[in-house]
Amino acid sequence: MTPPAPRLKAPIVLTHGILGFDFVRLAGQTLFAYFPGIPEALSSAGTPVRVARVSATAGVAQRAADLKAFLDREFPGEAVHLFAHSMGGLDARYLISRLGMADRVLSLTTIGTPHHGSPLADWSLRRVVPLLKPWFALLRLSWQAVPDLTVAGCGEFNAAVPDAPQVRYFSVAGRLEPSWRKWHFHLPERYIHKREGPNDGLVSVASAAYGEATDVWDGDHLDLVNWRSPVPFQRRGGQADYVAAYVALARRLADLGF
User: Fold this and answer.
1) For 244, phi and psi rounded to 5 degrees?
2) CA 17 centroid distance within chain
3) Backbone torsion region of residue 202, taken as left when φ is above 0, otherwise alpha when ψ lies between -120 and 50, otherwise beta
4) Strand order, beta sheet including 49-52
5) Over the stretch 55-71, which tens digit does the pLDDT of each residue have?
6) What secondary structure letter does DSSP report for 254?
7) Alpha-carbon distance 20 to 131, whole Å?
8) What is the DSSP letter of 199?
9) What pTM was estimated for this model as a whole?
10) Cα–Cα separations (whole angstroms), residue 45 to 2, 4, 191
11) Could you tell me the domains of the chain?
12) Rounded to whole angstroms, how far apart are CA atoms 221 and 12?
């Protein structure tokens, strides 16, 4: 059973990773949610919760600008807490450090964020992006997200984007135990494990660790946002467990006086 969520003094904004979205709706009905069940749980005690939508494939700088525009529209002049999945954590760090938002972000909790890059992004830049470049050009889409997620790209990012001393930084890393139930992450998990150790199938624990404290959750990169398994009739794991984990993140903020 999911424990009750605390009521925070400031809103929570959830932000997605590469190729992400907020909600997919049709005729007023939500078909898919990037954070299924999580906004509802976090807002159950009255804390305002919103899910941001930023560019799915642009680089960090553009996505951070999109996030700033969202905050200015939804919570003008207000302070917020950010819960950011995957690349969204880099967007949030850039927002705070480079876009003058340090006085409006009280805390940032990154979830499966490749703070030191992902070897899989390096592989994709060599093997996948060259094949897809014509399609990106045809659709007028940016592919800057991929180089921004490489090990070298994140190294440059970290040198140029210092933390703000008044903001509290926390993180979550995922640790996947390979099994037939996780066949879809088996090859990338092995590829990253040989180079950086335990990982969630896309981001290593070492790369995701950041800030004052790092919680390690068992699961793959999509478990961390409570997604169901793509295999019919098979769930990714206990949905309530991941919802409860997000409630625990909010509870930590409440215990700190937020």
Assistant:
1) -60, -35
2) 5
3) alpha
4) 49-52, 12-15, 80-85, 105-111, 168-175, 214-218
5) 999 999 999 999 999 99
6) H
7) 21
8) B
9) 0.94
10) 13, 8, 42
11) 12-255 (3.40.50.1820)
12) 21
> How far, CA to CA in Å, does 154 sit from each of 56, 150, 158, 208?
18, 6, 6, 12
Which tokens belong to 232? 């019919």
Roughly how many angstroms between the first and final C-alpha of the chain, as a whole number?
Answer: 24
**Residue 235 CB neighbours (<10 A):** 12
Residue-wise DSSP of 33-95: ESSTTHHHHHTTTS--EEEE---SSS-HHHHHHHHHHHHHHHSTT--EEEEEETHHHHHHHHH
Q: Per-residue pLDDT tens for 146-188?
A: 999 999 999 999 999 999 999 999 999 999 988 887 888 999 9
The answer to whether the beta carbons of residues 52 and 83 sit under 8 Å apart is no
